[in-house]
Amino acid sequence: MQLLEERIRKDGIIKEGNVLKVDRFLNHQMDIHLFEEIGKEFYRRFSDAGVNKILTIEASGIGIACITAQYFDVPVVFAKKNQTKNIAGDVFTTQVESYTHGRIYDIIVSKEFLSPNDRVLLIDDFLANGRALEGLAALVESSGATLVGAGIVIEKGFQPGGDELRKKGIHLESLAIVESMDEKTGTITFREQ
Ligand code: 5GP
């Protein structure tokens, strides 16, 4: 997605540890007009999939998921991140290793909000090693719902998550795929799509 790549080049900051900081427009301050274009693009790519629910993970996925959901006209559910000891009864749960914080946490979704009738699209801001998406996919599987695919705003293509998930047969659509980034020169190259 041209507009997104241009914005990443203009406002993205490369940090150590292969982290791309995009908090000027994506996950701290949020550019709502860009989000609208992102939402429309996800809709264009998944409009035939019969999506009736969008699932994301707190916190950064929520804004993108909500704006995207307006185009699909479906509800958004977000997985909550929880400490193990606080997990209450009627929930689907799995463990996820955090890319940015390095620790393992539980994610939960109430059983009330995912069922075998659902056709679920996953949405998230980043894809790196794929742990967050795998966790969300596991919650969908536990519920008996159908996973129709995953929409990612920025995939870091030099990390293994995207290719692993595609190999598993998940319909993955990433709006920008960063092929490489150089902290010293600030250069970002994107995969041709
Ligand atoms: P994964 O589970 O695929 O390794 O990482 C995905 C999660 O880690 C995303 O939900 C995102 O919040 C965070 N993340 C991974 N890489 C980056 C990055 O380069 N920049 C930012 N801002 N977040 C990232």
UniProtKB/TrEMBL annotation:
Q: Which reaction does it catalyse?
A: XMP + diphosphate = xanthine + 5-phospho-alpha-D-ribose 1-diphosphate
The pathway it acts in is: Purine metabolism; XMP biosynthesis via salvage pathway; XMP from xanthine: step 1/1
Q: What is its EC number?
A: 2.4.2.22
Single GO BP term: xanthine metabolic process
Q: Name one GO cellular component term.
A: cytoplasm
Q: Which residues bind 5-phospho-alpha-D-ribose 1-diphosphate?
A: A128, N129, G130, R131, A132
Q: Where, per UniProt, does this protein localize?
A: Cytoplasm
Outline the extent of the Phosphoribosyltransferase domain: 50-157
Query: Where is xanthine annotated to bind?
Result: L20, N27, K156
Which terms in the Gene Ontology molecular function aspect does this entry carry? xanthine phosphoribosyltransferase activity
| UniProt-listed SUPFAM superfamilies | PRTase-like
Main location (coarse class):
cytoplasm
Transmembrane segment boundaries: none
Q: Which InterPro entries match?
A: PRTase-like, PRTase_dom, Pur/Pyrimidine_PRTase, Xanthine_PRibTrfase
Keywords, sorted A to Z? Cytoplasm, Glycosyltransferase, Purine salvage, Transferase
Pfam short name (any one): Pribosyltran
Against NCBIfam families, the record matches this protein to: PRK09219.1, XPRTase
Q: Which family does it belong to?
A: Belongs to the purine/pyrimidine phosphoribosyltransferase family. Xpt subfamily.
What does this protein's UniProt record list under function?
A: Converts the preformed base xanthine, a product of nucleic acid breakdown, to xanthosine 5'-monophosphate (XMP), so it can be reused for RNA or DNA synthesis.
List the PANTHER family hit by this protein, alphabetically.
HYPOXANTHINE/GUANINE PHOSPHORIBOSYLTRANSFERASE, XANTHINE PHOSPHORIBOSYLTRANSFERASE
On assembly, the entry states: Homodimer.
Q: What is this protein called?
A: Xanthine phosphoribosyltransferase
Tell me the organism's taxonomic lineage.
Bacteria, Bacillati, Bacillota, Clostridia, Lachnospirales
Q: Which gene encodes it?
A: xpt
